[in-house]
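Bit of a strange request maybe. I'm writing a small parser for structure token strings and I need a real example to test against, not something I typed by hand. Could someone generate the tokens for this chain?
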Amino acid sequence: MILQGLNTALSRASTIDRALGEALRSADFSAPDGIDAPLLAGLLQRRTEAGLAPALLVITATSREGEQVRTAIAPYLDGAEVLEFPAWETLPHERLSPSAETVGRRLHALRRMHDWQQAGSRHPLVIVASVRAALQPLADNLTEHAPIELVPGGRGYDLPEISRTLVDLAYARVDMVSRRGEFALRGGILDVFPPTADHPVRVEFFGDEVEELRAFSVADQRSLPDVVERVELAPSRELLLTPSVRQRAREMVHEFPSMAGLLEKIAEGIPVEGMESLAPALLERLVPFAHYLPVGAAVAVLHPERVSGRAVSLAETNREFLGAAWSAATAGADAPIDLASGDFLTVREFREAVLFSAPGEPDPKRVWWTFTNFDMGDAAAVVAASAGGEAAESASRLASEYVRVAADAMPSFAGNVAGAVEHVGQRLRDGWSLVVASEGQGLVERARDVLSEAGFAARTVEAVPDELEPGVAYLVRAGAARGFEVPEVKLGLLSEAEFYGRAAGYEARRSAKLAPRRRNVVDPLQLKAGDFVVHQTHGIGRFVEMVQREVATGSRPTGPSRRAGIAQQPKAVREYLVLEYAASKRGQAGDRLFVPTDQLDLLSRYVGGEAPSLSKMGGSDWSQAKGRARKAVRDIAVELVKLYSARMAAKGHAFGPDTPWQHELEEAFPFTETPDQVQTIDEIKADMERPIPMDRLLAGDVGFGKTEVAVRAAFKAIQDGKQVAMLVPTTLLVKQHLETFTERFAGFPVHVRALSRFQTDKEARETIAGLGDGTVDMVIGTHRILTEKVVFKDVGLVIIDEEQRFGVEHKDALKKLKTNVDILAMSATPIPRSLEMAVTGIREMSTLATPPEDRHPILTFVGPYSEQQVAAAIRREMLREGQVFFVHNRVSSINRVAAQLSELVPEARIAVAHGQLNEHVLEQIVNDFWERKFDVLVSTTIIETGLDISNANTIIIDRADKYGLSQLHQLRGRVGRGRERAYAYFLWDPAKPLSETAHDRLSTIAANNDLGSGMQVALKDLEIRGAGNLLGGEQAGHIAGVGFDLYLRMIGEAVSTFRGDVAEGQTELRLELPIDAHIPEDYVDSERLRLEAYQKLSAASGPAAKEEQLGHVVDELVDRYGAPPEAVQNLVAVSRLRRLAQFAGLSDVIATGTKLRIAPANIPDSRRVRLERMYPGAKLVAASDVILVPFPVRGGEMPGDAELIEWVSNLITAIFPLPEAAGAAGATGTASAAGGVA
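Reply from user aminoacidic:
Good idea to test on real output. This should exercise your parser:
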């Protein structure tokens, strides 16, 4: 492997060789941090040579350290399999279930250990577990449930049986798969999301054969191009509801009446949230993790003193949670069931489980090693020298027990590249061999250039050779957490952390997590009975239900009945949305409107302030409200279009293409970019390379990687010799961004400075002078940047972070800065004004909707304040070395609250921060919290904006009922930045009643806890607060009248009209033909998914839709539900016809008896002549402005559905003037639609 040559060279040192001699027995090692990875690899190698199984369990204090160990050890072992055994993100006695992904990864590790042993494998197997994962007891049957395996072309599968097995393996059956551990069944198509897969999988069966496997996207449910060779469906929970578990639950119902509800569900085979906490009572026995280790495996404990401390805290916190959870569940009683067997083991118990195959029977093949970075030899020598008698004796015994490795930790240069080069140079001059390891190719090349420029021998190699030349630095792509030096053999390793001041990036396990679903005009997946919707013609109504009706549409004469003069009424099935409107007469029930599903594009969800009053159908109120709004919208549209035209006419700087340094910088990014990030970066670069000034809004939820996008844009501008200004709302953010940008630009000649009230006057003067003479490339600051004193030499890009926090006066000052600079605005919850401009195409908009890898949705609790729960939450966070935000928004009582918390959790280090503190004091406190000098920060909402502390993963918000919705969302976004599961507690005072609005806000925040819900929260905020607070009173009135969605749509139409794109407004079209066009239940059985399909077809048939959109919808239907039946093919053909009729400006295309009625009939004389010539019997009724055309009849029969649609389409194309594109689309599109939908 890459670093195996380094191991060979290290083994020549007597100190290392002596340590490797302990491979066959238990030992305690004293060695610096960085050298434990090569030592472990060497020890495992020696065990293999002695004929022992090359299996190793490494126990770390935290999962983050485990991640580093996995990255660091792999390059030293040839062909090694390095597995993670993750801990639950919940505690064993907590009433919460671990996520399906965590369970999946745990079961995968257990199954791999089992299979490795069964196969008698000889390649090294390394399992890395945190102390929390290693000490938790497990069910003893976790490798017994074989996963379901599906392969393309495989036969003999029984789909109903697979479905039953999936339920047994704890998968949830749903109508649309969106999370791990879910499956959906539609005819012969199975959608399933395996717990450890990046994407869900669609399995198509043909009889008992798997015809095809393909991955699909959760965001739009469409298949992805990835080829899936096979899929394994392992259990998605560790506690499966087997017959014996259900029977035990049934027996316990009578024993523990307080738990009856929970136990009854388990007895019925229904998985319940948090049922794992009952495992000790429901299962026969729990076993230690050591039970699953391969025979003869070695166990290594890193930092044993920290591991032991964590184990003690774990046990205490777990017991506290047992108390808190059960007292809440059983109205204050103690835990009624004895769950002691589920407690964490102590380290001593686990060690015994490892070293003894049975009580009193040691296992000679198993060994237990510990690695401490304390220098035990020196410590013992000091004690021995200063003490006499027994103390000296025990100290020297301690020293002799430890195997001391004579090596040193590599000094850290924390991003000071010059210092690193100086140190490396000194070592090379002294004849040392050094290896510089970095995971990014860009950083390897950068280090080589830096060292070569300094005149040193630097070689880039694929793998470190066994024979290292003195005086040479070898540069290699490999992960290393820490560096080390071994003076005896003049050998050293420098990691990225020492050379660049950046820890090696965590392995990017998932590059594309689940994006939230697309937000449609009326998102059919969100529509519930009772929701208010807006119909463009009839106004505000309430959604009641969706119904199917058989309708007799016109007549289809057939031979005998025609001759007899009797018109038979054929039946066609249609689906409708039922909307309720205000009663037309007082005291009567409300009027009902049946909206055909092909007219869903006329509906939008009502988003406004208070609950609106229902419109009267046919009343004048609605048309007046709409008229007023349309007039207001026209004024706004004129202003927006002026802005747009001015920007398009302005001459901006066209930046050049990417430079090699740009590629280096991007390769050094320690994570995998999300697909959204890649797309957004490309869009921004394309904008920058155009000669028109960029004006782009980047909307992305808190922590979704906006900063990295800004880093790359800024670097691109600086490469072109331009300066960059970054405007941020708070001084704390200035500090954070300065660190991020300085770290990312380390090693490049870029000068970044900050400008905020935290800089001294001297620093500020230097920065301003540097901006003026061009020596400062980038400035990050608050609105202080906008003062008249600050003059740039040549600014090319302005980045605005958290745009919603700046007022109009700041924006105006920005405009004065320069009219032709590129502007990139970033926001997590965009303000409606920005949304409005972005939606209407005046500003470009990019959205980051895919969470970065390893981000979990935040576990959100809403409930009354309880001291016991708060104490347990703080302790649980401290257990994983995390930190806690406690938000209390009253400065007058904040110190009292902090004192109460100190009494509740005496061991916690608590600090207080609020806006009335002296600026420098405040900065110092937040800085100390950032540097982990405190465990809990009790603060006001000053932390709301952008504070990025990845180690803080619990937030407790006191009196959460007093906050606005976007505030709550922003506050919750402060946690969950790291890789740990985050918790947010929204608590209210149990002694005071909750207002209805507060209840709405809290239930919204609880419901929208998916990653990327910022945009939903922004819209919901408008709904709860009303638009007035955000858009100014005048506009708010119009929005309340028509709803925000329709208002935005009106602005879009008005803007398009002024730009000459499309005609303003949209006619309501009645299209009624005697054909069967609907989505049958046996094709799509779920009502909400049928509604979604109708909505997509309706949107794709609107005049503003792109020509290919309808084709995409059809592809999606085929992909998700299989080949469409005839009724669906007709529906698609009708959608194409609807689009054509709208282009022709028609309002009616209706079958009446034996004729087709078309209105309005405004056609020129030449077309009338054509009408009479091509369609004998056609009549134009001038008085009512309609055309009547007899249906074609052949042999006394009406044409079939597809033929009839084509006939109507050809008629419209022939008689009505159409835009060129529409005519072509209609003629070809409809003809092909009739036959070729499938």
